Amino acid sequence: MQLLSSYTKPNSSKVQFTIGKIDAGMAVLLTNENQQIEFPSILLPQKVGVGSVVSVNVFKDVDEEAERSVRFDELQEAIYKIYGTNEPDPPVLKMRSITQTFVALEWAPLNLYQSDYKKLVLLKDNARLPIVLPNTLNSANSHPFVKVSGLDVDHEYTFKLVLETSSGVYESNDLVVRTRTLDNLKGICVCFGNFESAFVAQNSNEESDQAEGSKRKENPQIAKLKRTIDRIGAKWTEKITVDVTHLVCTIPGGLNYELASVYNIPVVKPEWLYTCESEKKLQPSLNYYLS
């Protein structure tokens, strides 16, 4: 622009040039003072060539500049509101259940706002555990729990969940837990498998009852087991979950039995639970496995 300084006016500038050369999309323009500048040939009028005289009028478009400035500020503000105001919330770790040798942990729904999920890492006493945690945000929120096994009896541990995102790393609260003593049976959570005559029809005409959808009485063995569970302060559930410690049954087979085998849940006879109550202490499962 220094070459045109003699033509510059406060708000606009109109300069005449002579086309000296047009080559490869660029034109060489000559001023009356024999100064030359390069100019995109695509911006030249049609039907001009070497020797043609062209006038270039340059002025500052104040209105357009102001409008673009406003649009830029609005875009910046919108980007800031979407990506700059809300950081991911740190994860909140809670204890779901605990026994003598394992703990089930769960976390509150993860809120990352506009950040991208990378991974979750679980620490035990500040050491990373080799446990596979959900690898997507959807799976982390739909299955927000993990089971940590192989713990010592009556021992204190500190757990922490680390969330890695595109916005940084966020740590949960320190969760201090203590595994139960052998005489504390409240950590037992039993699921039931198949028993002989699992259900007994209320009426003698069983087929008629089934057709009418009538209620059925519970198997006496299961009812007795539930009363035992209530007395020792333990829990029972209809389905296999991460909290289940034992599957109690007398006959192999069924969905719960298959799931227990997949998740390495001990499958024991009812005598195991009765012995736990009579001895007032957790019994080894090995002696009561369903063969």
TrEMBL record:
GO terms for molecular function: protein dimerization activity. This is BRCT domain-containing protein. InterPro entries: BRCT_dom, BRCT_dom_sf, Chs5_N, CHS_Export/Cell_Fusion_Reg, Fn3_2, FN3_sf, Ig-like_fold. Signal peptide: none annotated. One of its GO terms (cellular component) is trans-Golgi network. One of its GO terms (biological process) is conjugation with cellular fusion. Residues 213-290 form the BRCT domain. The lineage of its organism: Eukaryota, Fungi, Fungi incertae sedis, Zoopagomycota, Kickxellomycotina.
